[in-house]
Automatic annotation (TrEMBL):
Record Gene3D superfamilies: alpha/beta hydrolase (3.40.50.1820)
Stated name of the protein: Alpha/beta fold hydrolase
Pfam families: Abhydrolase_1
Coiled-coil portions: none
GO MF annotation, one: hydrolase activity
Keywords: Hydrolase
Gene source species: Streptomyces bambusae
SUPFAM superfamilies, sorted: alpha/beta-Hydrolases
InterPro entries, sorted: AB_hydrolase_1 (IPR000073), AB_hydrolase_fold (IPR029058), Carboxylesterase_BioH (IPR050228), Epox_hydrolase-like (IPR000639)
Length: 286
């Protein structure tokens, strides 16, 4: 069972939050809370598989971040780091999730560790899924602008979008079914075909606010137990991931073979095998 809640960001932006429950559950019952934060271009329902096995033992909420999913997409923004972190903070407080375990993928992981550094009183534990702490730089942003221009929109069907992102996208070196599934789920049907739920211009604006900066200082401020997870073929290299663990006061490391950036799609069983023991080991207190 999935129930929607609306969260209001500090600037009035309406955010869609989704609580995943077992069919006979009536609401919060003291189970430890988990907030799932998707990455850039993602949506809350990308976490549906993870949420299903978390729900029996946790209160599980996933957030559509601003500009994504069914949350507001204000044309003027802001799409800054401060805005994304403040939205996650609002979700934790308005839904009474604290102390919460934050599980973030890619940009959502950066949001999670920035919130953990800013409001340690709200966060019990943290999971960083395939997100770098180093700066990506201006060249990376130009590459993304070029990639967005190459999308053959509109797609005639949702399956056509799945095939293009998973098999035909010239930006990737080898077929990646998990990537295709990820992008198929953020496509919506319109009069002329299938287009993304999000604005590519807004995604570039959001990305612009963090790709030029490194985030090691904020990472070092995270005091709660933290798991850094990388896909063996993902965007976070092993050396950087291990350095992130070293910088974290309570860091742990895990990697998932045969997985890329979208590792919770590529290898869901292996993803569960590294996440579940970590969550089970998190102390019950704040």
């Amino acid at each position: 069972m999935v129930q929607r809640f609306d969260v209001t960001g500090p600037d009035g932006v309406r955010l869609a939050a989704w609580e995943f429950r077992e069919p006979d559950s009536e609401g919060p019952d003291g189970r430890p809370a988990v907030l799932l934060l998707h990455g850039l271009m993602g949506r809350a329902f990308h976490w549906a598989g993870t949420a299903r096995w978390l729900a029996p033992r946790h209160r599980v909420v996933a957030l559509d971040q601003r500009g994504h999913g069914l949350s507001d997409r204000p044309s003027a923004g802001p799409y800054t780091r401060e805005a994304f972190v403040a939205d996650a903070e609002a979700a934790v407080e308005q839904l009474d999730l604290a102390p919460v375990t934050l599980v973030g993928h890619s940009m959502g992981a950066l949001t999670a560790w920035q919130l953990a550094a800013r409001r340690p009183d709200l966060v019990r534990a943290l999971v960083i899924c395939d997100m770098r702490a180093s700066a990506l730089g201006a060249a990376s942003q130009r590459d993304w602008e070029d990639w967005f221009r190459r999308w053959p929109l509109p797609f005639p069907t949702q399956d056509a979008a799945r095939r293009w992102f998973g098999e035909d996208d010239p930006w990737v070196e080898r077929p990646c079914p998990g990537r295709g599934d990820f992008f198929a789920e953020v496509m919506q049907q319109g009069p002329d075909g299938w287009r993304p739920l999000f604005s590519r211009r807004q995604m570039l604006t959001a990305r612009e606010t963090w790709v030029h900066d490194a985030h090691w200082e904020e990472l070092a401020q995270v005091r709660c137990p933290t798991l850094v997870v990388r896909g063996l073929d993902g965007e976070l290299g092993r050396a950087e991931a291990q350095e992130m663990v070293r910088v974290l006061p309570a860091g742990q490391y895990a990697e998932i073979p045969d997985a890329g950036h979208y590792l919770h799609y590529d290898q869901p069983a292996a993803w569960r095998a590294v996440l579940e023991p970590f969550l089970d080991g998190v102390p019950a207190g704040p």
